[in-house]
User: What shape does this take?
Amino acid sequence: MPNLPVVAIIGRPNVGKSTLFNRLVGKKLALVDDRPGVTRDRREGDASLIGLDFRVIDTAGYEDQDAASLPGRMRQQTEAAVAQADVALFLIDARAGIVPLDAEIARWLRGSTTPIVLVANKAEGRAGESGIIEALGLGLGDPVQLSAEHGEGMGELFEALLPHLEPDGQAPAEEAPEDEEFYEQGPLKLAIIGRPNAGKSTLINRMLGEERLITGPEAGITRDSIAIDWMWEGRPVRLIDTAGMRKRALVQDKLEKLSVADALHAIDFAEVVVLLLDATRGLEAQDLRIADAALQEGRALIVAINKWDVAENGSSLFNGIRSALEEGLSQVKGLPVLTVSAATGKGIDTLIKVAFDTREAWSRRVGTGELNRWFEKAVDANPPPAPGGKRIKLRYLTQAKTRPPGFVLFGTRVDQLPMSYQRYLINGIRRDLGFGAVPVRLTLRAPKNPFDR
Assistant: This one.
């Protein structure tokens, strides 16, 4: 990946940071709402502005509160983003004017070694003129006037960023080693999902070896799905943290609905999904619903039991969870069930290794010859039924796709093939052809009858 310069967007709550972030990356990646404090963790994305390429970081609204509080922990993430950045965009709301918190942020930024570009957002029309004049008193130079929502002022922002970002000095992308198959596939896209407070953000922080994501005893801290690039034993991984998903009946707040929708979108983006359970709470019906959502999207699924270091009656708990999964997710037998501890880091290496192995099975393709030799033996061992005395003739099987693996079965009267026999074939494909517990799709196809007309 190219080594892009980094631009951080900072400011008090509700000045339009996430709107500007979405404008720069060209997608609605960050959640946006009228209420303040929507963004909590810092989100990164690749941005392009009139040919100027850079990495942009969206941060939480800066609030001057105790470091142990949730706003205080959010502020620490913002401070880390500024320290990491090549240049920071300090956003103010031109319509609201300068408030005391803006002045407090400006005092902090003047002591920073990171170059600062002052940006007056919501500057369209005449309503923001007084705020722009007030911004001159912050001691950070003339503000760049723009409207992130309407895309006005992007040319002026380009001119302000250009002296700090060298487009010609970007490092070239590293070439993938020819003998390393995992580089050819790209980074492992690994999403961590589960109910609130299962320890998803804590687990990712332990993997990274830093407090990259905000954690705490409060439920529902994570709102956006945050993707973070990481290297595990020289192999690239893209970790995706998601918001906790409660029962649908309990989700009434608009912002929580947006967070859950973002988490479901992250599942669709992922290759392998880890369902994280809380060992102190066991397996609940909501966990099965979340797992089923991942399987319905065709993602490879791993179940990890977190907080194993404080679990009681570990053996019976593990066996009970495995048994409940076999019964509740009967469409996929033999799901990997692992134990981890986000607090101590135990089991994380095993989890990542199993994730890579699972992706390999999820991406596997079987040759037509090998597939049909297996298919003939399977049909000979258990011939299809003959409903109404009419025999169902199965001709051949072919693999149409991978990721997830999909197969097409050709034959006559296949529309009458019972689901039990289809499951027999799917389970045999998984068991005998190296697909393990990944979702397998089977499509039935009958040849066209030339006498239909």
Remarks:
- The first strand starts at residue 6 and ends at 10.
